[in-house]
Amino acid sequence: MCGTDHSHDHDRGQFGFLVDTAEIRALIGETERMMNGSDDPAARVEALKPAFAKLLSADKWLPDEFAQPDEKSRMGDGIGQYALYRAEDGSLCLFSLVVPPGASTPVHDHLAWGLVGVYRGEQDETVYRRLDDGSDPAQAHLEVSKRQELRPGDVYALLPPTDDIHYVKTLSKSASISIHLLANDTACVWRHKYNPDSGAVTPFRSGYANAPCPTDHSS
Description:
By secondary structure, the chain is an alpha+beta fold. It has two helices and twelve strands. It is 15% helix and 31% strand.
C-alpha cells in the first residue's frame, strides 16, 4: 500500500528530492534542461543516456531502505517501488524498483517516455507489441516482440507506444534493482496490467512504498 503503514512515509517530503545526492541532482538537472530544449522524446532519451549511465555506475548513493522488497506491494511478489525524485506537477519521476529473486512484475505499461537501467542484479525482460487498435479498453491482443537479459549498467528506452508494455523477472540470486526515469509520476498514474493469454486489461496504480499518491486516502 502507498501510505502510512511504512515508518518512513512522513520522514521525507512527498515531492522533490526524496533521496538527495549529487548524482541524482545531476541527472534531474540534465533531464529538465532536455525537457525545456526538445519536443522529441526519442531525442531526449538518447541525449540523456550518458547522464543516466553515470548514475548507474556510481556506487553507494542508493540508501538501503530504498533497496528492499516491499511486502505490502500493490505489484505483488514483494516488489518494492521507491520514489527518489518526484516533480510536484507530475511531469517527471525517478524511482528504484526492487524485484526479489525469482519474482516477476505483472505485464504492464508506463504511459510515458523514459529510461530504465539495471543498478544491481540481473533481469530477464520480455517486451510486447500490441496488435489491436486499442478500441476495447478491457482487451488487448499482444505478441512478444523482444526478450533480453539485462545486467548492471544496461539501459533501455521507453517510447510509447513502442516497447511500453513489458515485464521483468529477476534472474540473479539476490534482488534486482532497476532505476527508472519517466516523464510522469509513474506509481501514481492509472495505467494497465495485461494478461497476454486471455487478453484482459486491468487498470492499476502501483503506488510508492515510501510516498503517498496525491489522492490516496486508503490508509
